[in-house]
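Lab manual, section 2.4: Encoding a predicted structure.

Procedure: take the sequence of the chain (448 residues), apply the prediction step described in section 2.3, and record the output as structure tokens. A sample record is shown.
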Amino acid sequence: MPADLQLALLIAILLPAGKVLASLTKRFGIPAILSELLVGVAAGPGLLNILHKPLFSGTAAGDAFLLLAQIGGLVLMFIAGLETDIERMREAGPTAFFVALLGVIWPFFLGAGVAHLLGIGWNAAWFLGGALTATSVSISARTLMDAGKMTSSEASVILGAAVIDDVMGLFVLAFLAAACNAKNTGFGVAPQLTLWFQQNIPWAGRHPLVIQMSMIAVCVTVYFAIGYGAAKKLIDPIIRLFRKIDANEAVTSCVLALVLLYAVSAEWLGSIAGITGAYLLGYVCAEAKLKSLFERTFAAIGHGLLIPIFFVSIGLSSNFRALGGHWLLLTAIFAVAVVSKLIGCGMAALGMGMGTVRSFRVGCGMISRGEVGLIVTAMGASTGIFNEAEVAVMVAVVLLTTLITPLIMRGAFAIHCPQDLEERAPGEGTEESVDATEYSMIDVQAET
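Recorded output:
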């Protein structure tokens, strides 16, 4: 069977499976994201191993599915940016930074210490701690969307802190790379500038960590300044220009191109994850006057196709068979992954005056791990610092934190506090009001 038909069949099997399971589990209060992840786990190498069945093996269909999933992650983060409450995000700025800071420090040192106590050498232990630092903002964003909490104060802090600790995770990665003398051959401006300085300036060659972190700091600052400023000034004029294109859904297509360009530029110029660039563009578009021209179409494309594929792919990438004999290490690191974010981020939010319940929600929203953790794990494996078992442990921890975050967050938001009543709009809190709001938005956008 040709690879394109294999890809079509793969999507035809996994996409409806996720939606059907989501419909069934919704009756028990389980969010859709968890159902999509479980479909991926069942289809992955630990159980069905669908990508290596004769029907799908030997072609690029599996790789194409995983690449399509990465596009889904970008669309997810753009939609999360569109749904961000801008005013509350600005108010949450100092709190988000403090939450991100403690959310990096606690997992890094606690993870490294526990790993070393369990017999892992310090080099591998530091890498393991580094893999635990960054939060997977896409998981938390989707959970907040499903729960209808994207406009809450907690959502502003969680999303802001997750973006910030993604940047902080880069500095941890730079430190680890320099500590193990890893070659700096990465993609983007910062690695190339670092390499040039080390080759041409003797002082820079003797202090690789200082140069590497300095270049990352400069590139991150430049990217956010240029990316935010350009989008803020030009997004509405650009959308008006797109409207003049005489073609079906021209605005949506061109905005999608902008999302992809922002993702590429985030990694090339800013040396940060592409999803951060997509979120930045969505954050600016949230205040755009003409966002109604593409907002609902993006939601249909994202939630109907690309975003479910993204979450199914996470499960497809997991393999629990390499964990045999290492269950104590897995249990300990998983416990550290959960507790360190709950305590570190929760204490930071509490210290900034958010209250006990809301601080707990923030800590829960920061538990999931994702792209940065897998990048650090891949670096540890490629340099020989991680063995196969340690790689399997870290991948399992990333998956497990991804699986439990929606459940824990749902439970945390089920605990009410006095501030919830102050925030809740009249009629909010019932499925009927949510449905009515959705239908009214459709009518308004149709008139537009």
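Check your result against the sample. Residues 208-243 form the longest helix (36 residues).
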